[in-house]
């Protein structure tokens, strides 16, 4: 599992490390990492390092210091380096001296626009951990002149370190080099960061509990239930799916199918699309209503059930069942319309809510602001539920404040019906007894991996994502096969 720390917690950890390290040592470790990545990007984009031209955008603090030291290291590799000092009076003195000693040039922002249009690489050392708001002044004006790949130092300047929010001019990086620990911006706004490279500066022993977590493939593989020699179809947990309608049977087919493919064991379907589900998934025990469904160890409820009285009745029945529930799509809207339906839930019974941004706003009564993490944490606490907030970066909050992050590699999941597939995956894991927070996070990981495997660079339907679930699981259980 990867940890991610907010600036507040990093500051404290860095202060402890700084106190125990010779002056300047941390910055040199960081800057050396920047220089290595800069040389790598130059080679990748131009085929050479020696003789290539690099511009440093240098702000008022240590982020600029990192860039200046990196520039001095790049000089030793034969790179032509020019620093643009955005705040000359507050430029990092030792870094500037190092760059000058190495033969680097220094210019003012007024002369920088042409330089930025003609260099081979720009190193963004404008602001790092102390960033507040979008870029201002000269930095804001220069961003539009950048024509080369950008290597961001610690984070792309102008993007909020803790929320990833962009409220005005900001850097879009090709690659970001960060130090000691990943920061929220790296997972909350991957689009602005590009590829993120983490440099070890010795911070690990100083870091406490992470603020956000990201599951690795091995974590997902370890959490995913697989049958043992003494298992049978019942012992692994039976998943119930209450989804779809006669007019819209697709949601039922997709959610049920995902549950069928996610785990071994058994899946029951309850609802008006029983015939269609049976025809598509003959292994499913399909009935017309939740009352007739028989026993299950978890329910998936919501996709396609409608937002009227009928849907409300189904949701109530499922919540009354006393087993873990994944409530998706229409179930979320029903909870917003008829909040009293939640009274049917036995306190303490696991509940996973899976809203997209619109459903989240409907459920909580307010739009998602810039701080998605704070919003999803608050909702998880309020509903005493695991809340999975969908998007390119999916957040999964537990009522105790823990947050998992899943960053999709591509955006192929932005297709109708893909959410139904996710709810089926979560339901199957809940039925298998997986902790609800981990279940939602692991399901999100398999879901996005299945999309990448199915798409391979071209659009894919929700049915395609569904069909790739076995490949995704195979990939996680036997890394390297098949390749995404
Ligand atoms: N500590 C460590 O262990 C290590 C730290 N390291 C490095 O230090 C970095 C943190 O450095 P830092 O704290 O000196 O501040 P930094 O982020 O450079 O900001 C500089 C100034 O920018 C300004 N500013 C703010 N917002 C702005 C805006 N929107 N637009 C324009 N300007 C804005 C603001 O000044 P103000 O506006 O308050 O006058 C602020 O003081 C960290 O990210 C990493 O790279 C590494 O060397 C490894 C070891
Ligand atoms: N741009 C995107 N990049 C990656 N994943 C996305 C993107 N947009 C949506 N998704 C994912 O696709 C799924 C869509 O679910 P949902 O909005 O419920 O769609 P539907 O109701 O059509 O099934 C979610 O898992 C969400 O995280
Ligand atoms: K930066």
UniProtKB/TrEMBL annotation:
Signal peptide: none annotated. It catalyses: (6R)-NADHX = (6S)-NADHX; (6S)-NADHX + ADP = AMP + phosphate + NADH + H(+); (6S)-NADPHX + ADP = AMP + phosphate + NADPH + H(+); (6R)-NADPHX = (6S)-NADPHX. (6S)-NADPHX binds at residues 62-66, 128-134, 154, 251, 304, 356, 420. Binds 1 potassium ion per subunit. K(+) binds at residues 63, 124, 157. Its EC number is 4.2.1.136, 5.1.99.6. Residues 10-209 form the YjeF N-terminal domain. InterPro entries: Carbohydrate_kinase_pred_CS, CARKD, Nnr, Ribokinase-like, YjeF_N_dom, YjeF_N_dom_sf. Keywords: ATP-binding, Isomerase, Lyase, Metal-binding, Multifunctional enzyme, NAD, NADP, Nucleotide-binding, Potassium. Residues 216-476 form the YjeF C-terminal domain. Transmembrane segments: none annotated. AMP binds at residues 390-394, 419. Catalyzes the dehydration of the S-form of NAD(P)HX at the expense of ADP, which is converted to AMP. Together with NAD(P)HX epimerase, which catalyzes the epimerization of the S- and R-forms, the enzyme allows the repair of both epimers of NAD(P)HX, a damaged form of NAD(P)H that is a result of enzymatic or heat-dependent hydration. Belongs to the NnrE/AIBP family. In the C-terminal section; belongs to the NnrD/CARKD family. Homotetramer. This is Bifunctional NAD(P)H-hydrate repair enzyme.
């Amino acid at each position: 599992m990867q940890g991610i720390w907010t600036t507040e917690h990093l500051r404290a950890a860095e202060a402890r490390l700084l106190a125990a390290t010779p002056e300047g040592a941390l910055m040199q470790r960081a800057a050396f990492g920047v220089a290595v990545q800069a040389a790598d990007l130059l080679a990748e984009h131009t085929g050479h390092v020696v003789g290539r031209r690099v511009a440093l955008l240098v702000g008022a603090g240590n982020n600029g210091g990192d860039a200046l030291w990196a520039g001095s290291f790049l000089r030793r590799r034969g790179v032509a380096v020019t620093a643009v000092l955005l705040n000359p009076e507050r430029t990092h003195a030792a870094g500037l001296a190092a760059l000058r000693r190495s033969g680097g040039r220094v210019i003012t922002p007024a002369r920088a626009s042409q330089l930025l249009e003609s260099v081979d690489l720009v190193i963004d050392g404008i602001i790092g951990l102390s960033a507040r708001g979008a870029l201002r002044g000269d930095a804001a004006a220069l961003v539009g002149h950048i024509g080369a790949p950008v290597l961001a130092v610690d984070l792309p300047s102008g993007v909020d370190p803790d929320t990833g929010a962009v409220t005005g001019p900001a850097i879009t990086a090709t690659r970001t080099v960060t130090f000691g620990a990943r920061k929220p911006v790296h997972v909350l706004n991957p689009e602005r960061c590009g590829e993120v490279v983490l440099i070890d500066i010795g911070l690990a022993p100083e870091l406490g509990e992470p603020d956000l977590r990201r599951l690795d493939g091995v974590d997902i593989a370890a959490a995913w239930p697989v049958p043992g020699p003494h298992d049978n179809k019942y012992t692994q947990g039976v998943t119930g799916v209450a989804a779809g309608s006669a007019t819209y049977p697709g949601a039922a087919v997709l959610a049920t199918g995902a549950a069928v493919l996610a785990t071994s064991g058994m899946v029951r379907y309850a609802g008006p699309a029983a015939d269609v589900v049976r025809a598509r998934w003959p292994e499913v025990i399909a009935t017309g209503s939740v009352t007739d469904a028989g026993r299950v160890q978890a329910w998936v409820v919501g996709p396609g059930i409608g937002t009227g009285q009928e849907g409300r009745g189904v949701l109530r029945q499922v919540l009354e069942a006393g087993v873990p529930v994944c409530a998706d799509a229409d179930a979320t809207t029903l909870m917003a319309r008829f909040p009293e339906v939640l009274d049917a839930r036995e306190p303490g019974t696991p509940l996973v809510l899976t809203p997209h941004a619109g459903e989240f706003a409907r459920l909580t009564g307010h739009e998602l602001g810039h701080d998605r993490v704070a919003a999803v944490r608050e909702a998880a606490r309020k509903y005493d539920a695991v809340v999975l907030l969908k998007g390119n970066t999916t957040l999964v909050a537990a009522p105790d404040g823990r947050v998992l992050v899943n960053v999709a590699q591509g955006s192929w999941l932005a297709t109708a019906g893909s959410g139904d597939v996710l709810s089926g995956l979560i339901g199957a894991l809940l039925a298998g007894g997986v902790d609800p927070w981990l279940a939602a996070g692991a399901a999100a990981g398999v879901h996005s991996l299945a999309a990448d495997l199915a798409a391979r660079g071209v659009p894919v339907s929700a049915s395609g994502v569904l069909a790739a679930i076995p490949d995704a699981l195979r990939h996680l259980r036997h890394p390297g096969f098949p390749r995404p």
